[in-house]
């Protein structure tokens, strides 16, 4: 059978070729480089264009960058995390309802005061507190604004700046977050009112066809725009792309989605010229869905979480503050401890930004009654100290340190002690071989101020607060043991010394 030629094809192809040839004739004025051909010359031109691309405008000054970096590092200093007390009026209404308490402004103020005025045992545990707009302008019973209360305890004041999620048109029930309108003006005012960092939450969910590429890109760009506005106003942005634990997805599926979302977020942050050293990330832990029938160990969850972070989060980010994601107090603490003990390299500080996981016991103990104030504060302090104890045990290599192990602590001097011998095996803790002090002994410690040697400071040491022994730790802690070490605090200008011991008797620090 003879091959049939398409009618008119030659004419049309010839015409198209002529049009293309006419349209893309090389400009005679562009002469090839004497040593480079046209292709190489275009490559060099591309490099020049890349080198002159516009950057963030106005660009952050070195002073602004240093301020942002310093704030971020103060929040995630060793042993410290974030108390998320930024529940909206509607969200806290559900919690107050659970204890039979009316959702009034005074009850909300009193409950926030309960947390913020807890005794000084909590100071080395909390690096920052995220507040709701209403709370930022409320005061304690003694007349001090809440931001002043937080700063007096060495904490950094944060503020929730997003205005909630709204449906994302064109998607199957997915959302984006609103609040960019007027954000720059609000951030400028919040900075004047004492806030140094902010939080913005975006929400994604795992389903058969979600999260969609549209939802991932939209939320990533919203987070980047928010971060840029914050940094221009001297506020450290906490970037929170939360992947909800709802559903029956397994651990592998959650890890895959987490990696895709975080990769998109950091691509958007790069596109918006965000100074990563002046940011923090608040992600979900990689966990299976609540309806998943397969059970995973804490070590498997930790490995999946750290692997996802290592694949997506640049080491320039100072810290990662995990949200609890609906986990119980105990589960959130155990998983975070497992993440910190994961044998993979982790270039960031890994800590917490917990709401319910720090407050649930305190809320229950309070019960809406003012006479329960001290009991509720004790529950909150106990939960925070558990986190500190896990951080300390991890730094000293006590892998078996768990919730309930007895420990006590006492603040000494607002000045840094001299001659603290470091130990290679404990990079985040400096150990000291000092004998325990008796309750009535005075504490003498040489200090430095402004680089010059100062006179020794002498203080009387009352018995430190203690927690009861509920269970003993590993073999290394079976015998009554006192280990003294120093954890640098947020400003780096002073330190605290702690004692850990499995003995139910009181122990004292020096």
UniProtKB/TrEMBL annotation:
Biological processes, Gene Ontology terms: glycolytic process
Keywords, alphabetical: Glycolysis, Lyase, Schiff base
One MF annotation (Gene Ontology) recorded for this entry: fructose-bisphosphate aldolase activity
Classification via InterPro entries: Aldolase_I_AS, Aldolase_TIM, FBA_I
Pathway: Carbohydrate metabolism; fructose metabolism; Carbohydrate degradation; glycolysis; D-glyceraldehyde 3-phosphate and glycerone phosphate from D-glucose: step 4/4; Carbohydrate biosynthesis; gluconeogenesis
Region named Disordered: 422-472
Subcellular location, record wording: Cytoplasm, Cytoskeleton, Microtubule organizing center, Centrosome, Centriolar satellite
EC number(s) stated in the UniProt entry for this protein: 4.1.2.13
Endpoints of the signal sequence: none
GO cellular component, as recorded: centriolar satellite
Keyword match Lyase: yes
Subunit structure: Homotetramer. Interacts with BBS1, BBS2, BBS4 and BBS7. Forms a ternary complex with G6PD and TP53; this interaction is direct.
Record-linked PANTHER family: FRUCTOSE-BISPHOSPHATE ALDOLASE
Family membership noted in the UniProt record: Belongs to the class I fructose-bisphosphate aldolase family.
Free-text function comment from the UniProt entry: Catalyzes the aldol cleavage of fructose 1,6-biphosphate to form two triosephosphates dihydroxyacetone phosphate and D-glyceraldehyde 3-phosphate in glycolysis as well as the reverse stereospecific aldol addition reaction in gluconeogenesis. In fructolysis, metabolizes fructose 1-phosphate derived from the phosphorylation of dietary fructose by fructokinase into dihydroxyacetone phosphate and D-glyceraldehyde.
Full protein name: Fructose-bisphosphate aldolase
Source species of the chain: Sus scrofa (Pig)
């Amino acid at each position: 059978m003879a091959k049939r030629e398409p009618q008119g094809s030659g004419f049309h192809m010839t015409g198209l070729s002529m049009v293309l040839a006419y349209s893309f004739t090389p400009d005679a004025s562009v002469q090839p480089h004497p040593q480079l051909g046209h292709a190489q010359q275009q490559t060099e031109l591309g490099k020049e264009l890349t080198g002159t691309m516009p950057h963030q405008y106005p660009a952050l000054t070195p002073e602004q960058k240093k301020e942002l970096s310093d704030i971020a590092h103060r929040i995630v200093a060793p042993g410290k995390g974030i108390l998320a007390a930024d529940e909206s009026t509607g969200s806290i209404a559900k919690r107050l309802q659970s204890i039979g308490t009316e959702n009034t402004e005074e009850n909300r103020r009193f409950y926030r005061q309960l947390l913020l005025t807890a005794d000084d045992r909590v100071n080395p545990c909390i690096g920052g507190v995220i507040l709701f707009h209403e709370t930022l302008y409320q005061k304690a019973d003694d007349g001090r604004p809440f931001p002043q209360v937080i700063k007096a305890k060495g904490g950094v004041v944060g503020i929730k700046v997003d205005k909630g999620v709204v449906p994302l048109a064109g998607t199957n029930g997915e959302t984006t977050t609103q609040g960019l309108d007027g954000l720059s003006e609000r951030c400028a005012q919040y900075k004047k009112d004492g806030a140094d960092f902010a939080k913005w939450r975006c929400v994604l969910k795992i389903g058969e066809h979600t999260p969609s590429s549209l939802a991932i890109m939209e939320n990533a760009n919203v987070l980047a725009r928010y971060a840029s506005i914050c940094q221009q106003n001297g506020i450290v942005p906490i970037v929170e792309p939360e992947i909800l634990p709802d559903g029956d997805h397994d651990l592998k599926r959650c890890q895959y989605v987490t990696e895709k979302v975080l990769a998109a977020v950091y691509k958007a942050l790069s596109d918006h010229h965000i100074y990563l050293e002046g940011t923090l990330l608040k992600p979900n832990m990689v966990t299976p869905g609540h309806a998943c029938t397969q059970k995973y160990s804490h070590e498997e969850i930790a490995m999946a979480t750290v692997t996802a972070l290592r694949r997506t989060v640049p080491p320039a980010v100072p810290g990662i503050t995990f949200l609890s994601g609906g986990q119980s107090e105990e589960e959130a603490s155990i998983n975070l401890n497992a993440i910190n003990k994961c044998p993979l390299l982790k270039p960031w500080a890994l800590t917490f930004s917990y709401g319910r996981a720090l407050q649930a016991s305190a809320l229950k103990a309070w019960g809406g009654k003012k006479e329960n104030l001290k009991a509720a504060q004790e529950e909150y302090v106990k939960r925070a100290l558990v986190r500190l104890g896990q951080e300390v045990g991890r730094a000293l290599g006590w892998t078996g340190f768990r919730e309930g192990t007895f420990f006590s602590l006492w603040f000494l001097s607002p000045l840094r002690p001299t001659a603290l011998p470091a130990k290679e095996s404990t990079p985040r803790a400096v150990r000291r071989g000092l004998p325990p002090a008796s309750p009535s002994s005075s504490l003498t410690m040489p200090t430095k101020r402004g680089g010059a040697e100062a006179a020794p400071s002498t203080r009387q040491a009352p018995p430190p607060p203690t927690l009861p022994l509920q269970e003993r730790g590993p073999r290394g802690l079976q015998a009554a043991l006192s280990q003294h070490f120093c954890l640098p605090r947020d400003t780096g200008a002073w330190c605290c010394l702690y004692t850990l011991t499995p003995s139910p008797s009181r122990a004292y620090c020096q």
